[in-house]
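Re: your question from the hallway

Yes, I did run it. Sequences:
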Amino acid sequence: MLKPVTPPPSSTAATAPSPAEPADLPVHLAEATGSDAALRRFLHGLPGVDQVGAEARAASLGTRSIKTTAKEFALDLAIRMVDLTTLEGQDTPGKVRALCAKAVRPDPADPGCPSVAAVCVYPDMVGTARQALGASGVHVASVATAFPSGRAALDVKLADTRDAVEAGADEIDMVIDRGAFLAGRYQQVYDEIVAVREACGDAHLKVIFETGELQTYDNVRRVSWLAMLAGAHFIKTSTGKVQPAATLPVTLVMLEAVRDFREATGRMVGVKPAGGIRTAKDAIKYLVTVNEVAGPDWLDPDWFRFGASTLLNDLLMQRTKMATGRYSGPDYFTLD
Amino acid sequence: MADKNVFDYAPAPESRAVVDIRSSYGLFVGGEFVDPVGGRSFKTISPATEEVLAEVSEASEHDVDLAVKAARKAYTRVWSRMSGRERSKYLFRIARILQERSRELAVLESLDNGKPIKESRDVDVPLAAAHFFYYAGWADKLEHAGFGPDPQPLGVAGQVIPWNFPLLMLAWKIAPALACGNTVVLKPAETTPLTALLFAEICQQADLPPGVVNIVTGAGGTGRAIVAHEDVDKVAFTGSTEVGRLIARTVAGTDKKVTLELGGKAANIVFDDAPVDQAVEGIVNGIFFNQGHVCCAGSRLLVQESVADEVLERLKRRMATLRVGDPLDKNTDVGAINSAEQLAKIRQLSEVGESEGAERWSPACDLPSHGFWFPPTVFTGVSQAHRIAREEIFGPVLSVLTFRTPTEAVEKANNTPFGLSAGVWTDKGSRILWTAEKLRAGVVWANTFNKFDPTSPFGGYQESGYGREGGRHGLEGYIR
Amino acid sequence: MTRIDVRKTYKLYVGGAFPRSESGRSYVVEDAKGKFLANAAQASRKDARDAVQAARKAFAGWSARTPYNRGQVVYRIAEVLESRAAQLVDEVQRGEGETKRQAQASVEATVDRLVWYAGWADKLAQVVGGTNPVAAPYFDFSLPEPTGVVAVVAPQESSLLGLVSVVAPVVVTGNTVVVAASAERPVPAITLSEVLATSDVPGGVVNVLTGPIGDTVPTLAAHMDVNALDLTGVSDPATAADLERAAAENLKRVLRPEAAEPDWTLDPGLDRMTRFLETKTVWHPVGI
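Structure:
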């Protein structure tokens, strides 16, 4: 297998995430990562998140009314942010090739329709996806580290990661050890992320928290900082295999974290909600939240992604509706 | 991709077509719209555009007398004799019609008042309906309310309400009054009469017996006539402390029962362990909700010195995302100032703030060329002695003060003749309760602000008035 | 030529659906004059068990609704019931052998009773709860919470007003209920089920069983996942005592039947609500 020809991600080097070495961190942050105790002091010293207030804020952003030109803009942007995903035991090369074709050209009837950001598959499907996507500019993302539970030895997780990278993955979506996090073994979680990041080489690392298992927004804020300190390029809500998956308030808290992290370090980290975002309407609520919480700098596929499968067709249907004035139906869009 | 970051929300105006504003309105007396005896009238305008919306009657003393007579007649002949169960069903009807016609009411409210449609749609109108729903349920349960085994109504209630929440304040006044068996003469504010007049139509739709609700429009003189009328048994007023004082003097020596809900200068106290993002939302909601035209607005931010810079930086960043403009646009966060008069007052006090040495800041925002507008504003470096820390501005203007210890926070918070509301932000439960216990204010919000519910009593200490509205306590002002 | 009526099959109401009895059995219901009315479903022990399961499943959601919302839902029942008043007057009249006027009064009182209870949803906590001025730096308050799943034996005679008078106070506070309807006069209970199914009441909040009481009530009384038992419709004191003994196994709250069926037109007071509530008291320190 060849290494990816183009360095990820697609856009110019200037906007590409800078390599995030823990050594780059300001002293007070670098000192936060020496031990379980140091990490605990730092993470538990972050301001709390009031659940009711955070959910009310998310709900209020959800009432924004995005119409006409703003909607056209948002729909195309959302399409460009999709990590088109298939993570099933029944995946085959045929299924993955079909998905790749869809990723490059989501709406065969409209050449003006943009491609999605990436195709997301299991490591053994990376080669197939790499080949199918070629020089299309659509990235290959692969889950790794014993996805979705993460219950394996570290060397197995690293081997899983290297395997995917060698097969041509531009992006690695790893899962954290939720058991270790919930047990307070923060240093272990941190070290694992650092190790996987190293195993990624040039590939970008997205760190999946499985926020549905962490339950509280305080935990979401803490784990976001933990992953960013460890060098994550992206922080991601969920595997899609656990309910609840992505929610607007969880994403809101993560967007606050990346915003505050940039304030503190000057470094930008991307956010990827995954699982459960099925409608264009929902996707637009997320974009509004990105816009008003993290800021417009994050309104770019380099900094915000949707992990989704069925979302794409709803975006396409809404896009067609904007163009024709008629509501479309599922029969007019390809399954994959 | 130079334009990649342009996510401009296109205009998303709510349709005006849902409301049908008449060119002129009479007074609603005895179940019908009647012309005022003196024939005088005034115009109500949209504060966002200065467009004239309608011509409204100005009730004279004579008109008020006719309205009180109609209310008295309805009280003696019908309403006080009706069982609580039947009164209850009328109030439920009104609640349901308010729900059914909610969009129409929301649009009309935003037009006449200038408040953003998202607030009239999601706050004012649903809460008004909920208020009727709540008090409807009390009408047949008064003997369980803890005011004795056989509570009786007072008679005719004269009610004068402000322009900041026109329909909601009407609901706060009329629902408990009617539930307890009183009849009412209500005067909406001079600048915002239209939803009250639509409410009159709703009373007709509900087949409410004539005279139970009477709506008389007018200005200060009309209000004075209601308060002073000798056949009014109860006066309920929401408005300025200045007018509240006059009312208290007027009713002195009479048998009239009075409740007053007046001004405030609420402290919003942010401790260093506060959930900071939610605290910032609470500060924003506390002072910019309804353009700051809220008697319980969190107009004094008391922030612990150790986190003051961080909180202010976050606050300013958040304020920069507030969308000021067309009240009917569904994405507007801050609408128009209700009147030219109010705008002048806000401007004047803001200038005083600057001249007294406080530092003034507003985010960049384009204000419309017509209508009455004032940008969200924050004053830092404010001390207790500044006028902007003591006087009610009643606009989108926040004064920021700092404190070092919980005791100092409470002392500063209480150092005012007002006592309507306060906010406390901390992750520590016992400190919330300690602070709440020490604050001399009628409503204390902890890790939230500006929350209202029909079941929850509302009202002030000291010069913020007396009596409570809402909840079981809200019945007390209307029964004996 | 007279038109032949299309008759309705009378079924149970469990978990928001209308199943036939699991046993496949039905029993003949006659009107007050002994004329055939219907073959009603004869609920079995298994139906009782299914109903308890449905009620338990619905409890978490229903009890977590805001009181305001529960009040709106119960009020909605009143609205929909009023719109079916003519049908119910006819059913009550035939089943109870009353005059049309009496039946009409009974149906009207039923609607008003629902409205009365609807209003209690967001008021009861202020009447029966409150703060406790303990002599220490604690904020201490008590509030009522629903007991859980309540099994109710409905009055045997008053087949609509009596039924609603025992069901409404239980559900308005957030409990869910399995009710055994009047055995001989089940038709209004089935119509009420249809009203409930179309008035925003979540499935499983009210479950209605028809059939001889002896077929289901002993199962409900002994069921370990039922939290309370209202024996109002049990007229035989010995049976009531047996059921109460069975209920003792998991310390169900039991409401004993009165000597004779109460006059349902009287003011019901708070008792039927407070019977099926728990009081929770919370202590919290006050300090800097």
